[in-house]
């Protein structure tokens, strides 16, 4: 929702050249929301969903911070200033989401690494018993 508000502010401002970043972030967040809601993350196991969400949060925080600084410092109209302020708020929100997603990603990767050696060990034991 915050990305959509920022998108609307950039459309109404002189800084309309920055409108693509919030639009893409809004669409990407919407896609991931529907992917999780429709359980696509359980159907497509080959996609690392926590990693995709983590990368989205990191890039969104960095991009929103950069374009907010540019919008506040370069443009003097009210809509640009509002978009910049909302952009700084979005940076904080995405940084918090980055932290939460990072913890989920670490848990996800620990699950994957703990499953792998056990699977390899049983395969090694089977191959050793066959060769004897």
Automatic annotation (TrEMBL):
Q: Which residues form the MARVEL domain?
A: 1-106
Bilayer topology term: Multi-pass membrane protein
Q: Which residues cross the membrane?
A: 7-37, 49-71, 83-102
* Protein name, as recorded: CKLF3 protein
Record-linked InterPro entries? Marvel (IPR008253), MARVEL-CKLF_proteins (IPR050578)
- Primary location: membrane
Q: Does the keyword DNA-binding apply?
A: no
Compartments where located:
Membrane
Domain of life, source organism = Eukaryota
Tell me the segments the record calls region Disordered.
111-132
What does the entry list under GO cellular component?
membrane
Q: Which UniProt keywords apply?
A: Membrane, Transmembrane, Transmembrane helix
